[in-house]
Design brief:
heterotrimer; A mainly alpha; B alpha/beta; C mainly alpha; B: alpha/beta; six-stranded mixed sheet; four-stranded antiparallel sheet; C: 8 helices; 82% helix
């Protein structure tokens, strides 16, 4: 119990770690969803070279451990002239890595969508960005909601890897507290519970999207 | 002379691989005509219909809407924007309804006038509600398409097409996907439209409806127009053998 | 990179494979046991399993590993880095496996069990001979997906001092001041292993779909 009191006294550090985790997750999710949505059509293009390159990108990242990729960005890129600080490297790695997963998720969801409503969109004069935003994307996002929510949870967990490049997110904060005050159980259990809480928030969001999808099914 | 036609299909041909789906089709439709395209499956009727608004691209020939060529300008394929603009003048009703599932009934009807034609919200809403009343679905305006029966969905589909105030309406087997007891409500709406003077091209298997409502029937078989004429002429005394065979097999089906 | 460096890298790769295999081998049956507990709705325990699974699926492996390695000594259990690593992989994996096994269990038609019970088979027997063979096939693609995910988590073990292939690569880079080559070499080691698993998973998915279509 005394241990938890120590953790409580360090709560500002812990909360700032939590805030950083949340910021990382939100920014990386937005980035990965946006880039993934742009990459997805390339996966399905007729031109073999384009589709093949896009598939290589996606498959490459799906076979790579995130931490290794983070190291490549943080330690490897400077040797070819691109230098990142921890935040830059962390965000860059999270966004790029998860773009590949989001693109594949959207591709799978798209394959399962009926094509007639999109054709109706064309017949009524929709095209380009308007067609994509008003006719193609909404049903796709509703269908892919749960899987995309799962990906956000993956982003939360991958953010914890960034402690090794000294990014002050939640695990880093908890580890710092436990090693300085010798309260490993209290500090790390608190971190665990905070991750769990984050996950429950994401799942609540997914459930809300699920209800919207259900109403239209 | 050709500018008097609402629709002029001139020498349209199309193949899918080695199959000649459309073979030098010529078809002129005057304003307020209701033309029914009849024929066995595989005759190319739906493909012809879809060539009219360029959902399918003809390999050769031209399609003119009110004298203006669609799909091609001065020998060059039209850009996206020009094609989309021309399509706003043609209404289409699909066999499987193709309503937008994420939008309510009212939103479905309002969507294209609002976001393609960019007309003001108040105006579009008022017209959409009027259209829904006309097809008998005003009380379902806030429902999602998934909650509607097939006949209701198709009536919404018709309202959605009418909302764009098209000069020409295309119907691709509008009742083929419906349970028999729901067919009547859709045909009733289409009959009213025809009587009000809408120019319509309808691909259908509903022989009684065609006989009753069409101003002209066009019989197609294996990619060509075999026979055209008034419904009376076609149904009582067809002049070609193929038409006769077809009517023997399908002509007795009547559900209206 | 010198020959000695390559040797270090490959020894790290063996560590990766060994720890992954151990984590998978232990996590699979544990996950199945947890799934069965929830499926059988054992009172008191089933909800606890649900909470366990929910928490572990939300926990980053690194955080779990730190908790096991640093917190357990305070209750008298001191684990070496490798043991702690395998334990973390096993617990993490079991939570995800549990959900995959559960999905397969819920897909199993109830009348399969009713048919077995009607012949007088009891739980242990029909579990072994009727339920498991069927759900093992259905769960296989998901489990293979989990295996590839587990391998991608193993670099986390470096934080407690386990020298896996990623850690080896970082060390070599720090010593030679050329971080890029060893990292790329490590990547080249991971890619075929994970790709093989992912391809295997896709193959099984196709076979499963085909056999279900025939049935």
């Amino acid at each position: 119990m005394h241990d938890f009191a120590i953790v409580w006294s360090e709560r500002s550090l812990l909360l700032s770690g939590l805030a950083n985790t949340v910021v990382l997750t939100v920014l990386a999710s937005i980035g990965a969803f946006a880039l993934g949505a742009m990459l997805c059509p390339l996966l399905m293009r007729q031109e073999r070279a384009v589709a093949w390159a896009a598939h290589a990108f996606v498959d490459g990242f799906r076979c790579t451990p995130f931490l290794l990729f983070a190291y490549l960005v943080y330690y490897g890129l400077p040797t070819v002239g691109i230098s990142f600080d921890s935040w830059g490297a962390g965000l860059f790695a999270l966004v790029l890595y998860h773009t590949a997963y989001v693109a594949e998720i959207l591709r799978g969801a798209w394959a399962a969508q009926p094509k007639a409503p999109v054709e109706a969109g064309h017949a009524f004069g929709f095209r380009g960005f308007g067609l994509w935003r008003r006719i193609v994307m909404p049903p796709l996002l509703l269908a892919a909601g749960p899987v995309l929510g799962n990906q956000v949870i993956q982003i939360v967990k991958d953010s914890a890897f960034l402690t090794v490049i000294a990014l002050p997110e939640l695990t880093h904060a908890a580890n710092s507290i436990q090693s300085r005050h010798y309260v490993p159980f209290a500090a790390l259990l608190t971190a665990l519970l905070l991750y769990w809480a984050l996950c429950l928030v994401v799942e609540a969001g997914v459930a809300a999207v699920g209800r919207m999808a259900e109403a239209r099914r | 002379m050709s500018t008097a036609y609402r629709l002029n299909v001139a020498g349209v041909s199309k193949r899918f691989g080695s199959l000649q789906v459309l073979d030098n089709i010529n078809l002129q439709v005057a304003p307020s005509e209701t033309v029914c395209l009849l024929g066995p499956s595989g005759s190319g009727k739906s493909t012809l219909l879809r060539c009219i608004n360029w959902l399918e691209r003809p390999d050769s020939g031209r399609v003119l809407i009110d004298g203006q060529t669609i799909g091609v300008t001065g020998g060059v394929v039209m850009n996206d924007r020009a094609l989309a603009a021309m399509r706003t003048r043609i209404g289409m009703v699909f066999q499987h309804f193709a309503l937008w599932p994420h939008l309510t009934v009212l939103q479905n009807v309002m969507e294209a006038p609002l976001h393609v034609l960019r007309r003001p919200d108040q105006e579009v809403r008022a017209e959409a509600e009027a259209l829904l009343r006309r097809v008998g679905l005003f009380d379902k305006r806030d429902a999602f398409p998934a909650r509607l029966s097939g006949g209701q969905k198709q009536r919404v589909g018709i309202a959605r097409a009418l909302a764009m105030k098209p000069s020409l309406m295309l119907f691709d087997e509008p009742t083929s996907a419906l349970d028999p007891e729901l067919v009547g409500e859709v045909l009733a709406v289409m009959r009213d439209l025809a009587q009000e003077g809408m120019t319509m091209v309808i691909v259908t298997h509903e022989m009684a409806f065609a006989r009753d409502v069409a101003s002209r029937v066009v019989f197609m078989d294996r990619g060509s127009v075999v026979e055209t004429g008034t419904p009376e002429a076609f149904f009582t005394s067809p002049s070609t053998e193929r038409a006769r065979q077809f009517l023997l097999r399908y002509g007795s089906a009547s559900s209206f | 990179m010198s020959a000695a460096d390559w040797l270090t890298l490959f020894s790290g790769a063996l560590t990766t494979l060994g720890l992954s295999a151990a984590g998978i081998a232990l996590g699979l049956p544990l996950g199945l046991a947890l799934a069965l507990l929830r499926w059988a709705r054992v009172p008191v325990i089933a909800p606890m399993v649900a909470v366990y699974v929910s928490v572990l699926r939300a926990t980053p492996l690194i955080t779990l590993l730190l908790l096991i390695f640093f917190a357990l000594p305070s209750v008298g259990i001191t684990l070496g880095p490798v043991t702690a690593g395998v334990l973390a992989l096993m617990l993490n994996g079991s939570a995800f496996n549990c959900e995959i096994w559960r999905a397969a269990l819920m897909d199993l038609p109830k009348d399969q069990i009713e048919a077995a019970q009607s012949t007088g088979m009891r739980f242990g027997l029909y579990l072994r001979r009727i339920v498991l063979p069927q759900i093992a096939r259905a769960a296989l693609p998901g489990l293979m997906s989990e295996m590839s995910l587990l391998i991608k988590l193993t670099p986390a073990l470096a934080v407690v001092g386990v020298v896996d292939v990623t850690r080896a690569a970082v060390r070599i880079g720090a010593a030679t001041y050329e971080p890029l080559p060893p990292l790329l070499a490590a990547l080249a080691i991971y890619l075929p292993i994970v790709y093989a698993l992912v391809s295997g998973q896709r193959w099984f998915e196709k076979r499963l779909a085909l056999s279900e279509a025939v049935a």
